[in-house]
């Protein structure tokens, strides 16, 4: 491959993208980033400028972690094939993965994406219940297949939502439903789900499952106490449905205290889906469930995935899990996460437009408001802050129901020194960014 | 990772699979193969035994091709991220891929699997036509998502087929529909499709697309003349529908004379989907279409795929395409394919149970029958032949409407010497395998 000595300009890359990919293929930031290199928590652009990556969860144990790269290289050099032949690495991986779960989780399917995993999970619910009705929260994202995009209100499906799909408002600890908090908030959420179950049963579709991110990551990770989901869990089980926990974002130790988001909140799901960080960027996803549910799914549907669980993908996932464990990155997420969140809380005392600081482990953020009394979302301001941070060399982004929450979710090898740089830069940017343009 | 000095037994691996993966996860052959190494057209089992791989199309340019491995290693060591940042490699790849297509193909989406590609293709058809009705052939396989598994009669969907799905019998050159051949056969196929279009329009679902493998690979790759699909193409276009060509199996030069199956048969599809061989085993798929259709899809649906088109996957796909071209593997497929098919035809003169020899390039096979007059499928015999070939060190398999066709589809670096070994082994196995047990 010949390369020009000068890197291509941003404009030329954007032109090629528009021509080759079509319209509506967004990039991050007003000035899109052309990245060429990554290492640990750092990425470099084509001009050689270095950025602190406080956003990307896919390179979970750090960009280009040498042990993961080596595992991919060794296995790709040795053999890559599919699961119609016997191979140990997928089995080794599933065993080590299952060791991080509690009973009754005992079985898994490996896929190539979290979308594929959620697509299977919905069919597991159908296989178990004989019904198709599914309930999701209203600002979530569970993936891009035809079936799964039915769940996402921020990526609405072609042709509209099916009759089998119902949405409930996600919990919002900063602006709780009906102004309620604590147990009343939890019961209000469960009641919403009960109403939708009743609708589905009345409509004849029947109720199969509730699918949720147990951390409500896309919905601004509300600050919910352990046990918050107990009432909704009871409602789902009483209706004969199953719970699918989408662990694509909170999973793999990101929350610091627990390997999985459902363990953190105290939820007991029936099916768990995994994606993004599972293999540090190699295309892998997985569905984890009980022996019983797996048997019902496998008996009802003949699933095969050519690339799913191939030796190279399995080696990448296994290396990622081992690095996570051997480098104590979950503990690191807990310690550094708490340190960083404390720093954010101090900034919230200084700046009136930081309405709320939320999150745990290495997944947290700050909700920007016009003032702390009205809690009116400062969406446009949050966007300017994220863009200015990028200009200052720190990558983060914004999300939440109002897109006004700064989202901080760095690779798991994020240290206190990195946190200091993040906090100092954020302080400087908040100082100089006007709330109103 | 500690390893026992002795490789695990087949029994222990099967036990672990049953425990960890659940039931109904099939392996190839009566004696499943535990593969540990691959190189070019060769694979090795855990006992060190070497097999000639005449079956696997995923390692398209040869198992563990060093240039593909090196491309993966280099890029995985440098940066892996997603397409919300700018990166050249996906653009370079799409440009080089599109150079192998004719107008109006000008745009692509990269995915992680062929299933994801077909799942998108169906939505493109919906975006363009505003309708959902789809027609597929009756013994095909287009993938494993909820939406796409609706198309596959050999992997029936949970809950049955949707009202929007219709199947037509695949062409069968050995047992043509109504005994017709040539133009009459082609017209009969087109008439079947017209009838299903009429049904869909009458039902109110409307007709959006015909999806076919232009080589009808899973259906025993019938021997069809160029232009065979002209009548059906006319029928689809007149009805305002689009044609999706699933090139997962015939694509990337496998047929020897053309890069794509649709070019070989003279079909002009609107959307083309790619998978398995695209990146020599790295999880990649793609959808290729016109600028116009891409714009309609992108305007109707906000598609994003976290792993799709990432720099490592793009580097793997780019290296695979470049090796294919620079090592002239398409030309090799034409020459060696013709040589091997000729050898098979000679075997068909010797053995009465070889009813038909079909195929082109490095994708061909021999249909086993009880006798050439009745053409009764010798399915059980074909299965024994495939198993005995495996015992003799040559990997192939069987497929087709009656599962009685030996399927030969080796990596594209298959040589005449490999063909000789295949043919000699097959001759020896056919000689000693009784037609009836």
Protein architecture, described:
2 copies of one chain form a homodimer. Chain A is of the alpha/beta class. Chain A has 12 helices and 15 strands. The first copy, chain A, folds into 2 domains: 10-61 and 328-432, Aspartate Aminotransferase, domain 1; 66-326, Type I PLP-dependent aspartate aminotransferase-like (Major domain) (Aspartate Aminotransferase, domain 2, 3-Layer(aba) Sandwich). Helix content of chain A is 38%, strand content 16%. In chain A, the strands form 3 sheets. In chain A, strands 4-10-9-8-7-5-6 form a 7-stranded mixed β-sheet, sandwiched between helices. A 4-stranded mixed β-sheet of chain A has the order 1-2-3-13. Chain A starts with 9 loop residues before the first helix and ends in a 5-residue tail after the last helix. Chains A and B meet through helix 1, strand 1, helix 2, helix 3 and strand 4 of A and helix 1, strand 1, helix 2, helix 3 and strand 4 of B.
List the helices and strands and how they pair.
The structure is a homodimer of 437-residue chains.
Chain A: H1 10-21, E1 35-39, E2 42-45, E3 50-53, H2 66-78, H3 88-98, E4 105-111, H4 114-129, E5 133-137, E6 165-168, H5 182-203, E7 207-212, H6 230-238, E8 242-246, H7 261-265, E9 271-274, E10 285-290, H8 291-300, H9 311-326, H10 329-350, E11 354-360, E12 363-368, H11 379-391, E13 394-395, E14 397-399, E15 405-408, H12 416-432
Parallel strand pairs in A: 3-13, 5-6, 5-7, 7-8, 8-9
Antiparallel strand pairs in A: 1-2, 2-3, 4-10, 9-10, 11-12, 12-15, 14-15
Helix pairs in contact in A: 2-9, 3-9, 4-8, 5-6, 10-12
